[in-house]
């Protein structure tokens, strides 16, 4: 690895690290910027294991980062895909109330989405729902025609290309193991040394986009961030090709307001297959994509965190249900049949999985909004769950803006 002196080192080559890098190259072209990624390829974790949905911004509290970044992010992303010839499709999405008790929450979602500036939302009755999704049954649905699908790995690769074309450096296979501060403060040149097995890179400032390890990276910088990343695995089934006709676009349930995840849904992806999921079970390893994956240190790390037990006390019942569903295809199927009564066990084959990096506060609260904090000579992205990929251009622009403001005088 050709190490050297950099103005900014971005840790993490997922969609957020790469968007930030690309936008820093545009907004601060004189800065020397490097991205350090521990894997041999970019975007192999959350970015490469998600549902591929370009969300429109319905669910999020008006004024929150999620609401602002998702609505702006979708528009920017559509433009980016057009300009860079990346396949995407705005196939639209229905959120389906399957019984009367969900109507109030569906109305709330309609009002939230409208307040967030999501265009063309419509509450539709069973007949219109049948025209949009012929096999779905519900008493009412919220139709979001601009929600779309894309391959976020391709989007991230395009960000990386643009960053490199602008002169940026990307080092893969370069896990940052240790961060050492030199006595000189930021601005005196070479304030931080980032040690990797491939060599040591000197930088004045750090941007931490470490995803499932963002808390660990923050600790390496000496920052006390007050949250711990708890990994939640989401498992998918895939519909057999002969059953793809059951799903035209995106079919979602009305989410449980007590839980930050959206509930199992049907997603037609940009490559033509249809997935059902994901559920949300506690993972015993941060990058544990299989049920049997286990890491004693990481599991003990979760268990030793007081916030974990407070979270467990709040969510144990929902959590047990998710674990049960994880092991029982029949139970998974029963939940899917609420949205799509005709689906049968034989329509489903095992699919992939993803692991969400969920930041949990010491009092057991699951952070809902994106969390981006500024440290001494670093910026940390501590919570970037869905719709983080949709919002990637808006988040990257925000972080690049913070960096120019915070580090501008010293780089
Ligand atoms: C199951 C699932 C479904 C989702 N569905 C959607 C969706 O449909 N739409 C949507 O908009 N969002 C979705 N999301 C959210 C979205 O995927 C994330 O918000 C987004 O990918 C976060 O990007 P990131 O760059 O922060 O994280 P990541 O993609 O996880 O990247 C972090 C990178 O940091 C690297 N790293 C960690 N530690 C180190 C270190 N010490 N040194 C060097 N590198 C390091 C990792 O290897 C990794 O590549 C979903 C997420 C999951 C898990």
Structure description:
The structure is a single chain. Among the domains are: 171 residues, FAD/NAD(P)-binding domain (3-Layer(bba) Sandwich); 105 residues, no CATH class. The protein is built from ten helices and 20 strands. Strands 5, 6, 7, 13, 14, 15, 16, 17 and 18 form a nine-stranded mixed beta sheet that branches. Helix 1 packs parallel to helix 5 and helix 2 packs across helix 10. The chain is globular. It binds flavin-adenine dinucleotide. Flavin-adenine dinucleotide (FAD) binds next to helix 1 and strand 18.
In short:
This protein is an alpha+beta fold and 411 residues long. Helix content is 32%, strand content 25%. α1 runs parallel beside α5, α1 (15-27) crosses α10 and α8 (306-327) packs across α9 (329-339).
Structure characteristics:
single chain; alpha+beta; nine-stranded mixed sheet; eight-stranded mixed sheet; 10 helices; 20 strands
For the record, what is the CATH homologous superfamily label of the domain at 1-52 and 151-226 and 369-411?
FAD/NAD(P)-binding domain
Distance from N terminus to C terminus (CA atoms, Å) equals 23 Å
Supply the helix-strand structural class: alpha+beta
Instruction: Quote the average pLDDT.
Output: 94
**What sort of overall outline do the alpha carbons produce when their principal axes are compared?**
globular
Number of strands: 20
- H and E string: EHEEHEEHEHEEHEEEEHEEEEEHHHEEEH
Q: How many helices in DSSP terms? A: 10
Secondary structure: helix percent: 25-40%
């Amino acid at each position: 690895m050709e190490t050297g002196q950099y103005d900014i080192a971005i840790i993490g080559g997922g969609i957020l690290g790469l968007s930030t890098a690309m936008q820093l190259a545009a907004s601060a072209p004189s800065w020397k910027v490097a991205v350090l990624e521990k894997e041999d390829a970019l975007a192999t974790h959350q970015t490469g294991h998600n549902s591929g949905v370009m969300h429109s911004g319905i669910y999020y509290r008006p004024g929150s980062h999620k609401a602002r970044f998702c609505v702006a992010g979708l528009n920017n992303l559509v433009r980016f895909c057009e300009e860079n010839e990346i396949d995407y499709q705005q196939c639209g999405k229905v959120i389906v109330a399957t019984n009367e008790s969900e109507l109030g929450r569906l109305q709330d979602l309609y009002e939230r989405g409208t307040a967030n500036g999501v265009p063309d939302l419509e509450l539709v009755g069973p007949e219109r729902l049948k025209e949009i999704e012929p096999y779905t049954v519900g008493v009412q649905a919220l139709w979001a025609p601009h929600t779309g699908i894309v391959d976020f790995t391709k989007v991230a690769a395009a960000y990386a290309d643009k960053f490199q074309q602008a002169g940026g450096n990307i080092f893969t296979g370069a896990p940052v193991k240790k961060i050492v501060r030199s006595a000189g403060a930021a601005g005196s040149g070479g304030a931080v040394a980032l040690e990797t097995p491939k060599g040591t890179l000197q930088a004045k400032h750090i941007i931490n986009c470490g995803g499932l390890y963002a808390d660990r990276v923050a600790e390496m910088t000496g920052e006390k961030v007050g949250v711990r990343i708890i990994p939640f695995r989401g498992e998918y089934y895939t519909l057999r090709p002969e059953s793809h006709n059951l799903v035209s676009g995106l079919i979602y349930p009305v989410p449980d307001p007590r839980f930050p995840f959206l509930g199992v849904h049907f997603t037609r992806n940009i490559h033509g297959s249809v997935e059902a999921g994901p559920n949300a079970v506690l993972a015993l390893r941060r990058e544990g994509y299989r049920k049997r994956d286990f890491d004693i240190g990481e599991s003990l790390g979760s268990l030793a965190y007081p916030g974990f037990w407070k979270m467990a006390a709040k969510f144990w019942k929902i959590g047990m249900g998710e674990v049960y569903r994880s092991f029982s295809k029949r139970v998974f199927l029963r939940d899917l049949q609420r949205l799509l009564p005709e689906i049968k066990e034989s329509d489903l084959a095992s699919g992939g999985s993803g692991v969400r990096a969920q930041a949990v506060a010491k009092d057991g609260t699951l952070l809902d909004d994106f969390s981006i904090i500024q440290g001494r000579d670093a910026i940390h992205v501590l919570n970037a769950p869905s719709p983080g990929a949709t919002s990637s251009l808006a988040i990257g622009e925000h972080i690049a803006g913070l960096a120019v403001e915070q580090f501008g005088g010293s780089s």
